[in-house]
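To whoever is on call:

I kicked off a structure prediction for a single chain this morning and the downstream step that reads the tokens threw a length-mismatch warning. I double-checked the sequence; it's 820 residues and nothing unusual in it as far as I can see. Pasting both halves so you can look.
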Amino acid sequence: MAVCGTGAGSGGYPLQRYHSTALAALALLLVTVFSPEVALGQSDRVTDEQIQAAIDRGVEALLAAQKDNGWWSDSGSYTLSSHVYAGGNEVCAMLALAYAGVPMTNEKMQKGFDELLKFDMLQTYNSAFRLMVITKLYNKLDRDRQAAALRVAMRDASFIVSLQRENGGWGYPAYEKGSDPPKRVAKRKDTWWDFSNTQMAILGLSEANKLRRIEIPRQVWMKAQELFVSNQLKDGGWNYGHEFGRKNIRDSSYGSMTAAAVASLMLTRDNLFPGLGCPCTGDESRGRLVELDASLERGYEWLGEHFAANKHPAAAGGETTIARWIPYWLYSCERVGLAGGMKYFGGHDWYAEGAQWFLKKQNSRTGMWGTIDDTSYAICFLVKGRAPILFNKLKFDGVWNSHPQDLSNLTDYIGQQKEQLMQWQVITLEAPVSEWHDAPILYISAESAIEFSDEDKAKLRQFTDNGGTIFYESSCGNRAATVAWRSLIAEVWPQYELQRLAADHPLFSSDKRLTRRPPNLLGMSDSVRTFMFVTFDDLSCVWAGRQVGVQQQATFDLGMNMYTYATDRRPLRARLASAFPEERYAEAAPQVGHNRQMKMARLKHGGDWHAGDNYATLQKLSDFVKQNGGLQLDVADAVAPSELAGDVTLAYLTGRRGLRLTDAETKALKDYLDKGGMLLADATLGSREFDADFRKAVAALGLELRAIAAGHSLLSGELDGANGYEISLVDFKFNLRRERIGRSEPELYLLTRGERIVGLYSPFDLMYSQTGFDAFDSRGYEKDDARVILTNFLLMMSAKPEATSSAEDNKPEETTDETD
């Protein structure tokens, strides 16, 4: 295997280094190409940390392999079955480094890129891959390099277009023997074509189409699409496409060509029909591509039936014959998976299984995957597939994908704005809710009524109650879809009201301030966050249309703002990163005091006392302290102050829109505290409004707020009868971290009556924060810190009956100067 992409197309032709490596040395290389392997168990599921480490080793290896002149080969070219590939190694290495994010400020990147532009590339493959490198790096180039790169890209694109055969395919261009410079033979004699060259030409031209001033003729895409559709085999797959005149494994469907064909058809569709399904006619989309859709679906089915990460599949068998095409096969699968938003081929998680294979095959000494081109496939696969998922698109029985390019274009736009690779994927109602949380936003575009089962409805509610955000649109403003969705939300979220978003809603300013706003955008809020955004008008046609002009800018930026709002600016986790990262305090060993059982109740009041209640915040805290410290914390129903019974050990008071206690409620709460009850209070999301009201209530209750000083037992965890966590320094949510630059200590207050402690107050969010869910502009602690602060307070209560009766230990520890 040589130049990027030639492996499957060449079918294993002998490779000779141009003026260099001998065939004997090559044979040895092919035997040892993936040895020694990295030690991974057969059933091990790789972690994101392992993937990142493998990428880093591969990048270091590629950079180290670069020669002083900027090349990755001795002569800058090699010959493959009589075809000369100029810059083959160079274009492979640069593509991998570009996707790995090596900056153009790196001297080796600069030298490699400058040299890459100089090569006279005379084959489809290397010209196409050079277009990919240029497009990937273009916006990161200085002005002079941009101008030079654009000239080369225009030349490469024109060259590839000129190579297309009459039937729509591409092959190896023929040149007159001995001509210098090489001169192509007459076109009527240059008839070779194959799907391997063809899919690479389409990929390169599609990338070139993203650059300004390069426009590919429509006929180019049309002829290529017709070629693929008309040559699909009966089993749904594709073969090599060229008739050899003898039986060959490549006469039957096989993996890399089928994956490449499916990916190519998606590209021709997107280039031929941008904004597919739009504009709407009445309340329905238009322009379905029945034949193309059927062809794609059969291709998906073939991949689902034959996918394997540890072999290159072929419908007629013979996998071992082409086993060394696996890197190229997996790279092709990735193209399909990412373009189609597919997490699975059949029952296979293609990225998890492919990443496992690549990590096992990385040379533990060199960091390479054998050849330069296989190393490029490996790095591109690991980097692109690792990208976090921003949107899940719900697939259901009905019209769910009328505008198939909507999320692809929107995600690409957001990724460009954030200078980060991001992806989207399709999710089904059958998938577990845990997989719905692969992305922070569940996107539902319905052009028909959706029939949800009771189990489906429970999943939707579970998704939002566990921090997920739903964005729903009635595609083309479909009336049946609108009526059905209104009915559904009244049933699934009955305690919340769907309302038009206020003009000052953060969605319109969370990232970019929108001057043009969709007129009919609604939301559903639980007083902590807007967990559902709804439009009964069509927005997806704008995203599907790809062009981001003045009129469309606000609609694209709305999608970006939704991402910022739903995540509270938190970076997205990589595809295989754990949703439950290791806890910061995992090494601690908390221990409860003699009082091992308590009862806790949320307090009702005239404000939004229920803020965050649907997230089962108290129950999550109860589960944590039981597992970490052995404390049995029973959660009672919410009660008014007058209903506080003697068995309620701890009353919890919170709110976001303010605190409203009547005189009678104030007296009842005061009596509860006088009888030995305890109060825990925090401002939901760090609400300043609640903080101001609570401080007034403290005075009305005859209490004082005492700031907890450094060294207090609540922070040290030394609780005189119980053991807690040491929490002198903490992490805050983004908004509070920005507000408290240089201040990492917790800010907590004891509630006291005289010298007796009757409770704890935090002006910053604790209870919602300890769930680990995000809410925009939260002024709260990060999950682990919120949990242990709350746990320490409960353990302090458990230490002994008198443990909370004195505020003396709030005094800082005395220090002595022991200098000589």
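Update from on-call: the warning came from a stale cache, not from the record. Cleared it. Sanity check on the structure: The radius of gyration is 31 Å.
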